[in-house]
Amino acid sequence: MVAAATLFGACSDAGVSSPEFKQAGAMQGGISVLSWNVYVGTDVDAVINALTDGFQEADLAVLSAQIETLVMTDFPSRSAAIVDEIADRRPHVVGLQEITTLHLEAFGIPTIDFLEILQGMLAARGLHYVVAGQILNIDVSIEVPQLGVIGMQDYDVMLVDAKRVKLNEAWGKSFEYNIGPVAEGIDLKRGYVYADVLIGGKNYSVVTTHLESSGPPDVLPDLRGAQAMEIATVLPVRSVRS
């Protein structure tokens, strides 16, 4: 029997999302997937909006406030809940959105690498989830006067259980249609990760993505539609037969 499964994660950046768990196939050899919008931990849109006209003195207050929020939301503590969920549900595939690397040394904060933290916690629990593929989405690099450069890279990442999943192929791709550069050092784009996997003798196609969640209201619905349509064109049509 050949089947197809898709995994989507497209949530607002406004807050922490709950995980979405799906299980396909009640028969032995079915697939279970977990999708989680990890959440950067602060309002990135507020920072971007403040900086679209170039760095001003008032922008430092906005930036400092959002970094303070980032510290309070404390990703290392939040990641423990994600690992607990994975350990409890043991999905074959995990789709993670807003997996972020933050470079805030200019504010006295060491680099925070979400993926490194999560994989370290998973390994400590004896859970062997490996990266099947990832795609770089938002890439921000800002020169803060008298402090230095700060940066943020936002990824979609797909993990698979190395003990139960054979990875046939996987790749990440940026969408053809994106908002693009909005200011110097700020490029807003989205993409998706595709994987073809073998689980229990059956082939599955899995996708994880974060469709664009912010932008001009007269453009955003069409942009999201175009991005979703692009994913639909790459998914194979599989016949189901016993």
Using brief descriptors, characterize the structure shown.
single chain; 242 residues; alpha+beta; Deoxyribonuclease I, Chain A; eight-stranded mixed sheet; 5 helices; 27% helix; disordered N terminus
Explain how this protein is built.
- It is a single chain.
- 27% of the residues lie in helices and 38% in strands.
- By secondary structure, the protein is of the alpha+beta class.
- It has one domain (20-234): Deoxyribonuclease I, Chain A.
- Strands 1, 2, 3, 4, 5, 6, 8 and 9 form an 8-stranded mixed β-sheet that branches. Strands 7-10-11 form a 3-stranded antiparallel β-sheet, with no helix packed on it.
- The longest helix is centred in the first third of the chain and has 17 residues, at 57-73.
- The model is unreliable at 1-6 and 8-16 (pLDDT under 50).
